[in-house]
Amino acid sequence: MKKNMFILMGFIFLALFAANLSAEENRGAQRIEIDSGVKGIVDFNHGMHQKGVMDCGQCHDMFEKNPGAIQTAIASGELKKKQVMNKKCLSCHKRNKRANEKFGPVKCSGCHKKREKK
Q: What is the reported pTM?
């Protein structure tokens, strides 16, 4: 009986391990450039946020997990300009700062890099 239980536990462990690997496979790009119009490009460190936030739903409850999803949602009227930045990015960064935890930029220039004039 103990042997069967041990084998069963081994299979459960392997199944959970395999499920975790498949969930980790496609978690998006490590770095994403987000075009924010006149404010310039945001070089978003997606990989760092994944490690710190862990739950994709913290950010992706407002937009899809697809390249260009924020811009597409703004163009279709599903999101307003600055909605993600104000409701997600800045609120999380400021909350972490108040809690004396690791936090990201809390000013526009911390993420937005002006484009060079041509």
A: 0.68
Alpha carbons within 13 A on the beta-carbon side of 113:
7
Q: What digits encode the pLDDT tens for the residues 2-13?
A: 666 556 565 566
Query: Is the distance from CB of 110 to CB of 39 less than 8 angstroms?
Result: no
CB 62 within 8 A of CB 84: yes
Strands 31-35 and 41-45: antiparallel
Q: Given CATH 3.30.70.360, say whether it is the number of domain 29-113.
A: no
Rounded-to-integer distance, Cα 96 and Cα 88, Å: 12
Position 10, amino acid: G
In whole angstroms, what separates CA 35 from the centre of its chain?
16
pLDDT category, 21, cuts 50, 70, 90?
Answer: very low
Task: Note whether 83 and 62 are within 8 A (CB).
Answer: yes
